[in-house]
Design a protein that fits this description.
By secondary structure, this protein is of the alpha/beta class. The chain contains eleven helices and twelve strands. Its main location: other.
Length: 355
């Protein structure tokens, strides 16, 4: 089976989050220690280059990391990337709590970090609302908390929050779908969507972004099902979708982990008339793109916790960021959601996660 991937004009679509979410930041964390000497008389800010040295070993700091159970590939990649990033720094001692989907257990893990007096905490909460109170206690104890992926209920619970762009994923997918419709001259396109868990805000945000972007080219979603971020649910719901829609032009599947099952359903049904767009950026998806079995995937970076480790180190060492005029670590960082297709898949494949 070869899912349709013909494109008269191949253009790399940079994330339309820049259009729809201008607040997104992509931040580097190296060589950004502010200059300590007083500026020379008459010197301007532009005359003063930062001193650098953030990658050089500094005061040893202890960072506590807690994340949810890695029950699918993206979460496993999140946890692994955090550990791997900490190992790059000889001045970081990482204390990793046992991965869990039990909010009460994770609360006790953070309490242990507080009692041990760690210098910073990187936390991907099982549930942002339930972990808000204990994270706030950590902050009140003078321990900076870096909140990853799932937001707390109050900004007082974290010094810095690092997020993937769920709304931006939908915008990127929808804008790319509009591009495919225009480039291929598709009249009255049938557009389908395979979402994740509908009760989750992240799924709602992805769907809203997709709908908003499609509205920009006068299109709507014709057929929609929701899966559960698992291979089994992906196959089941994709099969239901295919049975309900005898002809489809474009399908966006929110999650590449469940996409393994989605792709199996396509193969089982012998359906290949549509452009298949995925989400998250798994290695499976990128290999399918290389093989012509998939059109594109929308990146949801699994490096968020690794970025969290870097920023926690800077915060614990009282360092800032020279990549910004304001040298302090930002309070909120939203990562980009670019389209990965045949034009740029080689660039992103080394960073992909296995489902």
């Amino acid at each position: 089976m070869s899912v349709r991937t013909n494109r008269p004009y191949r253009r790399l679509l940079t994330s339309t989050a820049a259009v729809f979410a201008a607040g997104a930041l992509v931040v580097g964390c190296t060589s950004n220690e502010p200059e300590e000497e007083e500026p020379a008389a008459g010197a301007t800010d532009e005359d003063q280059a930062p001193a650098g040295g953030n990658d050089e070993p500094g005061e040893t700091v202890t960072i506590g990391f807690s994340g949810p159970l890695a029950d699918h590939g993206w979460l496993a990649a999140v946890n692994d990337s955090a550990i791997a990033e900490a190992e790059k720094y000889e001045d970081v001692e990482l204390r990793t709590a046992e991965a869990t989907n039990d909010a009460n257990l994770q609360i006790s893990q953070i309490e242990t970090f507080i009692n041990e007096g760690v210098d910073a905490i990187v936390l991907l909460p099982t549930d942002g609302a339930q972990l808000t109170e204990v994270a706030t206690r950590a902050m009140e104890a003078g321990i900076p908390v870096v909140n990853v992926d799932r937001e707390f209920s109050t900004p007082f619970a974290a010094r810095t929050t690092i997020l993937g762009d769920n709304y931006g994923m939908g915008v990127s997918a929808g804008t790319y779908a509009c591009q495919l419709i225009e480039e291929n001259g598709i009249e009255d396109p049938v557009i389908a969507e395979i979402a994740g868990i509908d009760s989750l805000p992240l799924t709602q945000e992805r769907s809203q972004g997709f709908a908003d972007a499609l509205d920009g080219c006068g299109q709507t979603v014709d057929n929609r099902v929701a899966a559960e971020f698992t291979v089994e649910s992906g196959e089941e719901q994709a099969s239901n979708l295919l049975q309900a829609a005898p002809q489809i032009d474009i399908i966006w599947n929110h999650d590449d982990d469940q996409g393994v099952g989605v792709k199996q359903a396509f193969d089982n049904a012998g359906r290949d008339e549509f452009f298949f767009i995925g989400g998250a950026g798994s290695a499976n998806a990128m290999r399918w793109i290389q093989e012509g079995e998939m059109e594109a995937t929308i990146l949801y970076p699994p490096t968020q916790a690794a970025d969290g480790i870097r920023l926690a180190r800077l915060l614990a060492q009282n360092k800032g960021m020279s990549d910004l005029v304001q040298v302090e670590v930002p309070r909120r960082i939203v990562l980009n959601a670019p389209v990965v297709n045949a034009d740029n898949v080689e660039q992103y494949l080394p960073l992909a996660f296995e489902s």
